[in-house]
C-alpha cells in the first residue's frame, strides 16, 4: 500500500507551481499591431486628421483644408470618406457652427458635381485639383453674396487665394494620404512625397493652434518635436527643411508665430549637426537654438515659456520608441536605414534573377539527362529483335507465296529459322556472298533459294543503312547531352556569381585613403570592389598628374605594401585638363606572364596559308595558345582552320569546360558539310597564377618545352576534328616554370625537314642549339632552319608559336606604409 501511495504522490511534487513570466516584448508587439490596425487599417487616423484640418486656419480666416482633404480621401479610400467627413465637420464646429455647415454643404456639392461628371472624366486624379479649387471658389463666392450683397476687390482676392490653396493642397494630399492609409507599406518614399508629408503634418498641427497646457502652446511643442524627429533621422538638411516648412505654415496660420520659423529652422540645422550624439545631441541642439532665438527676439518673461515648451518637446522626443524612428528612417533617402532597405530590394531582385538562371540551368541539365538516356534494352535483346524484324521482311517477300510455307514455318520452324539465320549472318559478313557449304544446306530446306538470296541482299542494304543511321543518332544524342550539360554548368556558375554580394569596404577605403594621403599624395575617391587574394579590384580618382605616372610609380607600389600582394595599374583614363581627375583601376598582378612569338609561311610562298593561330585571353587569369591546320592548302583550308579557332575562342570565353568546347567545335565541323574537310587543333591553356598548363592535341604534331638544356615532348593521339562525331579528348597536363620556352608547330614544320628519319631528334637538337630565348627570334629561327633544310622550298603551310614563361616582377618596388586590416 505504501508503494502505491508513493507512486501516486511523488509526481505531484514535480509540478511547477511558479507562475510563468510575462513576455513583455510579445505583449508590446501585439499592442503595437492592435494600435496600428485601429488607426491605419480601420481608418480612425483619418478621423483625427480630419478633425485637426477642419479647424486649421490660414491668415486666421481662411479654411482651405477641408474640401481638398475630403476629395483626396474620397478618390483614394472611398470607404473611409465618411470618417474623414465626420472629423472635418467636428473640427469646423469647434470654430463656429456656420463653418461646420459650410464644410458640410461644400462637401455635398462636390460629391454631386463630381459623381455627375465622373463618367466623362478620362483621368480622375488629374481633374480632382481643378474640381476642388473650382467648387471651393464657387462656395466662397456664394457665401460672400449671402453675407454681404456687394463683392469687394479684397473679397475677390481672398476667394482666389483660397481656390489656389485648395488646388495646391489637393495635389499635396493626393501624395501624402496614401502614407496614412497603407497598413503595410513596402515602397520607398520619393523626395516629393517626403515634402508633401511634411506640409501635411505641419498643416495638421495648425489645427492645434490655441490649445494650451499650463500656458504652453501645443502647436509649439508638436512643431519642435517634429523637427527633432526628422533631424535625428535624416540629419541637418532634412531637419532644416522641416523647420522652414513647418515654421512657414505656422506663420501663415498666425502672423505672431513669425519668430517660430527662425527657431524651428535653426534647431533643425543644429539638431542635424549634433545627431551623432544620438537623442541627447539633437535635444541639446534644440535647447541652444531656443536660448539664442529667445534671448535675441523676445523678452525674459517669454524666454521662460519657450524653454518650458522646448523641455516638453524634448521629453516627448526622448520617450519616442527607437523602433518608430527606425521604421520612419527606412523611407527617407540618405539614411542608413533607407540604404539598407534599397540593398534589401536589390538583393531580392538579385536572388530572383539567380533563381531564374538556376532554373534554366536545371532545365538544360534535365534535357542533357534525357538525351543521354539510351534505350534500356540490352544489346542481345536488341539484336534478337532486329533479327526477327529482318526475317519477317524476308519471309513476307519470299516465303509468303511459296507452296512449302506450311511445311517450313509451321512444322519445321526451328530448323528453318536457324538455317535462315545462318544464311543472313554469312551474307552480312561476306558482303552479300555465301559459301558453297551454307548454300547446299539451305537448298536442302528451301525450294526457292535464289529468291531468298536476292531478298536477303536487298534487305541487308536497308538494314545496314538503318543501323548506321541509328548509330549516328545515338552519337549525336550523346554529343548534344554533353553540350547541354556544359551550358547547364555555365549557367549554374553564373547564378552563383550573381548571388555573391559585393562587400562594403568603407573602413578599408578610409584606411587606404589615409595611408596614401599621409604620404603626401592627394586622392579624391577610393572604391574597393574586391579584396579577395589574387583577385583585388580597386578604383581611384586621382587629380591630374601632368603625365608623371603617379599611379604606376607611387600608388601601385604603396597598395602592394598595404595589401601584401603585387598590385599593378590595369586601366587608366587620364584627365583632359589640369583641373580634372584621372580614373585608375588597380588589379592584382598575376604570378606569371607569357610572352609570345609567331612565325608562319604559306605553301610556295603564297599569301593565304591553310594554318591559323591565335592567342586567347580567358577569364580568371588564363591564356590559351592555339594552332589549327586546315586540310590541304589555300583559301578553303584557311577558312576551315580560322573558323575552328573562332568557334573555339567564343565557346571557351563563355566559360564552358575545354573538353566540351572541343567536342562542340568538332560536332559543328562534322555536321556542317558533307565534304571531307578536316582540321587539326593544337591548344595549350596556361594558368598565370601557378603556370600549370593543359595541352589538348587533336590530330596535331607534338609540342616541346625547353627548360635549360632539357627538352620535354608533349604529344597525344587524337584524330583530326570533323572526322568522327564522337571521340575522346586526351588532356595532357604539365607544370611549367619561369624561363620555360613552349614551342608549338604545325605538321608543315615538324615534318618539314628533308632527308630526316627521326623528326623528334632533329627538332630537339635544333632547340638545344638555340642561343636565344626571345620567343619571336626562336620562332623565326625554327622556321628558317626548316625552310633551309628543304633548299628554300616551302612544300606545305608552316606555323610556329613560341611562348616564354616569366615571373611577373613589378616595375616599381613597394613603398612601406601601414598594413590594411581586411576584415571590417
Automatic annotation (TrEMBL):
Top-level taxon of origin: Bacteria
Sequence ranges assigned to domain PPM-type phosphatase in this UniProt record: 595-805
Keyword Lipid biosynthesis: no
Transmembrane feature ranges: 44-63, 83-116, 128-147, 159-182, 194-214, 226-259, 280-297
InterPro entries: Bact_Sigma-Reg (IPR052016), PPM-type-like_dom_sf (IPR036457), PPM-type_phosphatase-like_dom (IPR001932), SpoII_E (IPR014221), SpoIIE_N (IPR045768)
UniProt keyword list: Hydrolase, Membrane, Transmembrane, Transmembrane helix
Coiled coil feature spans: none
NCBIfam families referenced in this protein's UniProt entry, alphabetically: spore_II_E
Entry protein name: Stage II sporulation protein E
Amino acid at each position: 500500500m505504501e508503494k502505491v501511495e508513493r507512486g501516486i504522490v511523488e509526481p505531484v511534487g514535480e509540478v511547477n507551481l511558479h507562475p510563468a513570466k510575462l513576455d513583455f516584448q510579445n505583449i508590446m508587439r501585439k499592442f503595437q499591431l492592435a494600435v496600428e490596425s485601429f488607426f491605419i487599417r480601420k481608418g480612425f487616423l483619418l478621423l483625427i486628421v480630419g478633425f485637426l484640418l477642419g479647424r486649421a486656419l490660414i491668415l486666421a480666416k481662411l479654411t482651405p483644408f477641408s474640401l481638398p482633404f475630403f476629395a483626396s480621401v474620397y478618390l483614394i479610400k472611398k470607404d473611409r470618406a465618411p470618417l474623414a467627413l465626420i472629423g472635418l465637420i467636428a473640427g469646423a464646429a469647434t470654430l463656429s457652427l456656420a463653418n461646420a455647415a459650410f464644410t458640410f454643404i461644400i462637401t455635398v456639392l462636390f460629391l454631386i458635381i463630381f459623381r455627375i461628371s465622373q463618367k466623362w472624366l478620362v483621368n480622375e486624379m488629374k481633374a480632382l485639383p481643378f474640381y476642388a479649387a473650382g467648387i471651393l471658389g464657387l462656395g466662397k463666392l456664394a457665401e460672400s453674396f449671402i453675407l454681404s450683397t456687394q463683392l469687394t476687390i479684397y473679397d475677390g482676392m481672398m476667394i482666389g487665394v483660397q481656390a489656389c490653396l485648395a488646388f495646391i493642397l489637393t495635389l499635396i494630399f493626393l501624395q501624402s494620404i496614401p502614407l496614412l492609409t497603407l497598413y503595410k507599406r513596402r515602397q520607398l518614399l520619393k523626395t516629393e512625397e517626403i515634402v508633401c508629408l511634411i506640409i501635411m503634418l505641419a498643416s495638421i498641427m495648425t489645427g492645434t493652434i490655441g490649445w494650451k497646457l499650463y500656458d504652453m502652446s501645443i502647436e509649439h511643442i508638436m512643431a519642435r518635436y517634429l523637427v527633432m524627429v526628422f533631424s535625428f533621422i535624416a540629419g541637418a538638411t532634412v531637419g532644416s527643411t522641416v523647420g522652414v516648412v513647418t515654421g512657414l505654415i505656422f506663420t501663415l496660420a498666425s502672423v505672431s508665430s513669425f519668430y517660430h520659423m527662425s527657431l524651428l529652422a535653426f534647431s533643425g540645422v543644429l539638431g542635424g549637426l549634433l545627431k551623432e550624439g544620438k537623442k541627447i545631441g539633437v535635444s541639446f541642439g534644440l535647447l541652444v537654438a531656443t536660448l539664442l532665438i529667445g534671448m535675441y527676439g523676445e523678452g525674459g518673461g517669454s524666454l521662460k515659456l519657450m524653454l518650458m515648451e522646448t523641455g516638453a518637446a524634448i521629453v516627448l522626443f526622448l520617450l519616442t520608441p527607437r523602433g518608430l524612428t527606425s521604421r520612419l528612417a527606412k523611407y527617407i533617402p540618405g539614411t542608413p536605414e533607407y540604404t539598407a532597405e534599397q540593398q534589401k530590394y536589390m538583393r531580392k531582385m538579385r536572388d530572383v534573377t539567380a533563381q531564374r538562371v538556376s532554373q534554366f540551368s536545371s532545365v538544360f541539365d534535365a534535357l542533357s539527362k534525357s538525351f543521354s538516356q539510351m534505350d534500356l534494352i540490352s544489346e542481345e535483346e536488341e539484336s534478337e529483335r532486329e533479327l526477327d524484324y529482318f526475317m519477317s521482311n524476308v519471309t513476307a517477300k519470299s516465303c509468303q507465296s511459296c507452296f512449302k510455307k506450311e511445311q517450313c514455318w509451321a512444322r519445321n520452324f526451328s530448323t528453318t529459322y536457324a538455317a535462315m539465320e545462318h544464311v543472313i549472318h554469312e551474307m552480312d559478313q561476306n558482303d552479300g556472298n555465301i559459301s558453297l557449304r551454307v548454300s547446299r544446306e539451305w537448298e536442302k530446306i528451301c525450294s526457292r533459294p535464289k529468291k531468298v538470296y536476292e531478298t536477303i541482299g536487298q534487305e541487308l542494304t536497308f538494314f545496314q543503312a538503318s543501323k548506321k543511321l541509328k548509330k549516328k543518332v545515338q552519337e549525336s544524342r550523346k554529343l548534344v547531352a554533353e553540350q547541354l550539360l556544359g551550358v547547364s554548368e555555365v549557367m549554374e556558375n553564373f547564378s552563383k556569381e550573381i548571388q555573391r554580394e559585393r562587400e562594403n569596404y568603407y573602413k578599408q577605403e578610409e584606411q587606404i585613403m589615409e595611408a596614401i594621403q599621409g604620404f603626401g599624395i592627394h586622392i579624391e575617391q577610393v572604391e574597393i570592389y574586391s579584396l579577395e587574394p589574387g583577385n583585388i579590384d580597386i578604383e581611384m580618382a586621382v587629380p591630374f598628374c601632368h603625365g608623371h605616372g603617379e599611379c604606376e610609380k607611387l600608388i601601385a607600389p604603396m597598395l602592394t605594401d598595404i595589401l601584401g600582394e603585387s598590385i599593378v595599374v590595369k586601366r587608366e583614363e587620364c584627365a583632359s585638363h589640369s583641373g580634372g581627375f584621372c580614373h585608375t583601376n588597380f588589379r592584382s598582378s598575376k604570378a606569371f606572364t607569357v610572352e609570345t612569338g609567331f612565325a608562319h609561311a604559306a605553301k610556295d610562298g603564297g599569301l593565304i596559308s591553310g594554318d591559323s593561330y591565335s592567342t586567347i585571353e580567358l577569364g580568371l587569369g588564363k591564356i590559351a595558345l592555339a594552332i589549327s591546320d586546315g586540310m590541304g592548302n589555300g583559301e578553303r583550308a584557311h577558312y576551315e582552320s580560322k573558323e575552328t579557332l573562332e568557334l573555339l575562342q567564343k565557346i571557351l570565353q563563355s566559360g564552358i569546360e575545354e573538353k566540351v568546347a572541343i567536342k562542340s567545335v568538332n560536332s559543328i565541323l562534322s555536321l556542317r558539310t558533307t565534304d571531307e574537310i578536316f582540321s587539326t587543333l593544337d591548344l595549350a591553356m596556361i594558368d598565370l597564377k601557378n603556370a600549370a598548363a593543359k595541352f589538348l592535341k587533336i590530330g596535331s604534331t607534338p609540342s616541346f618545352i625547353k627548360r635549360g638544356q632539357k627538352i620535354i615532348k608533349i604529344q597525344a593521339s587524337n584524330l583530326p576534328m570533323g572526322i568522327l562525331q564522337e571521340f575522346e579528348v586526351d588532356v595532357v597536363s604539365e607544370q611549367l616554370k619561369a624561363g620555360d620556352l613552349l614551342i608549338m608547330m604545325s605538321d608543315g614544320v615538324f615534318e618539314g625537314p628533308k632527308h630526316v628519319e627521326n623528326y623528334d631528334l632533329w627538332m630537339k637538337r635544333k632547340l638545344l642549339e638555340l642561343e636565344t630565348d626571345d620567343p619571336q627570334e626562336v620562332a623565326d629561327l625554327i622556321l628558317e632552319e626548316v625552310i633551309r633544310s628543304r633548299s628554300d622550298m616551302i612544300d606545305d603551310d608552316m606555323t610556329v608559336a613560341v611562348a616564354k614563361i616569366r615571373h611577373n616582377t613589378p616595375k616599381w618596388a613597394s613603398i612601406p606604409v601601414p598594413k590594411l586590416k581586411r576584415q571590417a
